[in-house]
Design brief:
heterodimer; A: Rossmann fold; 4-stranded mixed beta sheet; 22 helices; B: 217 residues; alpha/beta; Rossmann fold
Chain lengths: 474, 217
C-alpha cells in the first residue's frame, strides 16, 4: 500500500502557494495561454482539424498495438543506414550508454537540442559528473540552464520568464549589460551558442517521431538549433521514447498538420528535419556517427493497459495551454518533468503514483484538456481514474478519503442524510454574511480563502422533491 | 538491455487483439486540392510571403541566376556557398563550398509544398547540410515541376520512394524563429535570418519529371 507522505503534500502546497504569490508568473502564464488560444481556436474549429485528430489517434493506436514489430523494423533500418541502436530498459541504462559513449569519445563539450526524454532520464547531471560540459541550445532551455530551473512547459520551457528576468540572466552570462529587447537578447544567444556548436564533440537530440519503414528520426523545430546539433558535432546521439514511432512517412501528414498549430500556433514550423543514418561516405558535413537510444523506462507497463492512449501523445502542449489549474499554479508546482494535464497523467504512470500522489488532484476535471487533445486522449477521464487508483491503493489525501467515506455513508442512508441536512443548512446560514460565507474556519478555511461559499437559500432539493405533486408513470 | 528481451517485453504487454489490422491504411484526410498550376504557384507565393520569405517567380534558370546575381550586387555580398552543379560561369569566383563564413547559401529544392510555403532540400555529396543552415541568408531555387499542393503530398511521395532515403531531408518553411523570450516573435535564431526563393515556372525537374502529379489522380 502506498501511503501519501505528509511532507510531500506540504511541499506541493508550498510550491502552489509560491506560484500563486508570484505576480510575474501569474501574468505571463495567463498571457501565454491567451496568446495561444487566439491563434489556435479558429483553426481547431475547422472540420479538417477533427478529421486530422481522428487520423492521428488511429495511426498512433495501430502503432502501439504492433509496437514491438515497428521498433524492430525501425531499429533494423537505422542499422542498415549505418546507425547504432541501443535498447534502454530504464533511465539508468539509457544514461549509462550515453555517458560511456561520451567517455569513450572523450567528449568535452556536448550540445543539446530540446528533448523532454533526456530531462526524464536526467541525462545532463550524469554527463556533467564525468566532466563534460553540456550546453542546452534551444533558447528556452538555454534560459533555464542559466537559471538552474526545470522546464515550465513542454513546448515553451521558459514561458514563465519575463523579458527583464531573461535580460538579467543573459547579462550575467555575457559579463556585460544587455538591452531588454527580445531581438538583442536572441542575437546574443545566437553568437554565444554558435561558438559552442562548432566546438562541440557530441550533439544530443530528442526525436519527435521515428519512421519505422525508413529508419528516419524526425525533428520538428523552429530555431535551427536542432539542425545545428545534428549537423556540426562528429557524433549525434538521439534519445527517444519507445512509443515515438509511426509506420511510414505518409503517416506524418496529419501529425505535421496538427502539431505546429497546437504547439506553436503556426501552420508549419520553420524546420522539419528528417535524419536517416549518419553522414554518407561521400558527404562533406553531418555527423560521422549516429546513435539512437530507444528508452522504455516504464512505457511498456502502460502498453495494453487502461491508460494506453497516453502513449499516443504527440507532445504538442495544447493541454497546458488551456488548463485553468496550470494557468494558476504554473509548471513547477507539478515538480515533474511533464507538467500540466499530460504530466498529471504521464508522470504517475511512468514513475508510480507514490512519487506524484498530488498530481491527479491538480485538476478541476473541467475537461478542457480532453477537448483540445491533438491525439484524442481522454486526459480528464484518466485523471479521474488515477484518483480512483490512488484511493484504492491508499495514496489519496487522508482528509479527502475520510470526507468521501462520510459522504458515501450518508448518501446511502436517507434518514442519516436528512438529519445531517437539518443540522448543516441552518449552521451554514448562521455562518454566512451578505449571502455568502467569506472566511470559513476549520475545514472550510481552505475553500473560502480564495472564494466565497454561497449561502444556502430556501429549502433543500430533497424537500422540494417531496412537495412536488406526484406524477403518474407514463 | 538485449534487443530480443526489449522487444519481447513490448510484445507481451501490447494488446493487439483482433481489432488492429496488420497493416495501417494510409491516412485519408480532407486535404487541399488546387485545380491549376497557376493556383498552386499563387498560393505558394502568398504563403512564402506570409512566413517572411522573399519570393520571386522567374521564367527560366538563366532568369533565376540573373536574379541571384542582382541580389548579390544589391547587398554587396561577395560570396555564396552552393553545390558545384548549381554554380554558373560569370560569377564563378564568388562560389565557394565553405558555408560557414559566406553571406549566402544557395540550394535547389527537391520538393516544395504550396499550402505551407515549404521547400525540401535533400542532402547529398554535393548538397551539404550547411548550405541551407549556416549562412545568415539562404536562397532556394524551386522548379515548378517539384511543387505540390500540400506537405502531405510531399510526405506521401517520400513514403513511396524506392531505396534508402538521403541522410538528411530539411523541410524549410521561412527563416529560423523563436518566441521563447517572453512570447515575443523573433526572426533569426540559430539558423538563417533571411530566406529567398526563386520559383522557375515550368522548368524541367532534376528527376526529369515535368509538371505536377496530382496525388488523387
Amino acid at each position: 500500500m502506498v501511503v501519501l507522505s505528509a511532507a510531500s503534500r506540504q511541499a506541493f502546497d508550498a510550491r502552489v502557494r509560491d506560484a500563486l504569490a508570484d505576480e510575474v508568473l501569474q501574468k505571463v502564464v495567463a498571457e501565454g495561454q491567451d496568446y495561444m488560444q487566439a491563434l489556435v481556436e479558429p483553426v481547431r474549429a475547422e472540420a479538417q482539424w477533427a478529421a486530422a485528430v481522428d487520423e492521428i489517434a488511429r495511426i498512433r493506436a495501430h502503432t502501439l498495438a504492433h509496437l514491438d514489430r515497428y521498433v524492430d523494423e525501425f531499429a533494423t533500418n537505422v542499422e542498415a543506414r549505418g546507425g547504432k541502436v541501443f535498447f534502454a530498459a530504464d533511465a539508468a541504462e539509457a544514461r549509462r550508454y550515453v555517458v560511456d559513449l561520451a567517455q569513450r569519445q572523450r567528449a568535452k563539450l556536448i550540445v543539446k537540442s530540446k528533448s523532454m526524454v533526456t530531462e526524464e532520464i536526467e541525462l545532463n547531471p550524469a554527463l556533467e559528473s564525468i566532466g563534460a560540459k553540456v550546453v542546452e541550445t534551444d533558447l528556452g532551455e538555454f534560459i533555464l540552464q542559466l537559471a538552474h530551473e526545470k522546464p515550465f512547459h513542454i513546448v515553451a520551457p521558459a514561458i514563465h520568464k519575463s523579458l527583464e528576468q531573461i535580460r538579467e540572466l543573459f547579462s550575467t552570462a555575457a559579463g556585460r549589460e544587455l538591452k531588454a529587447d527580445a531581438q538583442a537578447l536572441t542575437e546574443y544567444a545566437r553568437g554565444a551558442l554558435r561558438e559552442q556548436f562548432f566546438a562541440a564533440d557530441m550533439g544530443i537530440s530528442g526525436c519527435n517521431f521515428g519512421v519505422a519503414a525508413s529508419g528516419t528520426v524526425v525533428l520538428v523545430t523552429n530555431e535551427g538549433n536542432g539542425r545545428m546539433t545534428t549537423t556540426l558535432p562528429r557524433t549525434h546521439v538521439v534519445v527517444m521514447g519507445v512509443e515515438r514511432l509511426v509506420p511510414t512517412f505518409a503517416d506524418l501528414a496529419p501529425i505535421l498538420k496538427v502539431l505546429p498549430w497546437a504547439g506553436a500556433g503556426e501552420r508549419i514550423t520553420a524546420y522539419v528535419t528528417a535524419i536517416t543514418g549518419p553522414r554518407r561516405d561521400d558527404e562533406a558535413d553531418g555527423p560521422g556517427e549516429l546513435h539512437v537510444v530507444i528508452v522504455d523506462n516504464g512505457r511498456s507497463r502502460i502498453l495494453g493497459g487502461k491508460y494506453e492512449k497516453i502513449l499516443t501523445c504527440i507532445r504538442c502542449g495544447a493541454c497546458l495551454d488551456v488548463c485553468p489549474v496550470y494557468r494558476k499554479i504554473g509548471g513547477h508546482s507539478y515538480d515533474s518533468v511533464y507538467p500540466g494535464p499530460i504530466g498529471a497523467v504521464l508522470s504517475p504512470l511512468l514513475d508510480g503514483l507514490a512519487c506524484h500522489a498530488e498530481l491527479p488532484f491538480a485538476s478541476s476535471l473541467c475537461g478542457a484538456c480532453t477537448e483540445v487533445c491533438s491525439a484524442g486522449i481522454p486526459l480528464a477521464d484518466y485523471i479521474r481514474q488515477l484518483r480512483e487508483d490512488s484511493v484504492s491503493n491508499g495514496s489519496a489525501p487522508t482528509a479527502w478519503r475520510l470526507g468521501f467515506q462520510a459522504f458515501a455513508a450518508a448518501a446511502v442512508r436517507p434518514r442519516f442524510w436528512a438529519a445531517a441536512e437539518a443540522v448543516a443548512l441552518p449552521f451554514l446560514r448562521l455562518l454566512s454574511e451578505r449571502g455568502a460565507l467569506f472566511n470559513g474556519r476549520g475545514p472550510l478555511a481552505a475553500w473560502t480563502r480564495g472564494r466565497d461559499f454561497p449561502r444556502a437559500e430556501g429549502t433543500s432539493f430533497r424537500s422540494q422533491w417531496r412537495r412536488q405533486p406526484k406524477r403518474r408513470a407514463s | 538491455m538485449q534487443r530480443r528481451a526489449f522487444l519481447e517485453r513490448l510484445r507481451s504487454h501490447s494488446a493487439r487483439g483482433e481489432t488492429q489490422p496488420e497493416v495501417l491504411a494510409t491516412p485519408d484526410l480532407p486535404e487541399l486540392r488546387l485545380l491549376s498550376s497557376q493556383e498552386r504557384i499563387d498560393l505558394f507565393m502568398a504563403r512564402l510571403s506570409e512566413i517572411g520569405v522573399v519570393a520571386h517567380l522567374v521564367a527560366s534558370l538563366p532568369d533565376a541566376r540573373e536574379a541571384v546575381e542582382r541580389l548579390l550586387r544589391e547587398r554587396a555580398w561577395g560570396s555564396v556557398a552552393c553545390a558545384p552543379g548549381l554554380s554558373w560561369q560569370g560569377i564563378a569566383e564568388q562560389w565557394t563550398v565553405e558555408a560557414r563564413e559566406v553571406a549566402m547559401g544557395l540550394s535547389e529544392a527537391e520538393w516544395a509544398a504550396a499550402e505551407t510555403g515549404t521547400v525540401v532540400v535533400k542532402t547529398s555529396a554535393d548538397e551539404r547540410r550547411g548550405y541551407s543552415l549556416l549562412p545568415s541568408a539562404i536562397g532556394v531555387i524551386v522548379r515548378e515541376g517539384r511543387l505540390r499542393d500540400t506537405l502531405g503530398d510531399v510526405l506521401r511521395e517520400i513514403a513511396s520512394e524506392e531505396g534508402p532515403l538521403p541522410s538528411c531531408l530539411s523541410f524549410i518553411s521561412g527563416p529560423s524563429s523563436t518566441a521563447d523570450i517572453a512570447s515575443i516573435h523573433v526572426v533569426g535564431v540559430h539558423g538563417p535570418r533571411e530566406v529567398f526563393v526563386w520559383v522557375i515556372a515550368d522548368g524541367p525537374a532534376p528527376g526529369g519529371d515535368r509538371g505536377s502529379r496530382r496525388h488523387d489522380e
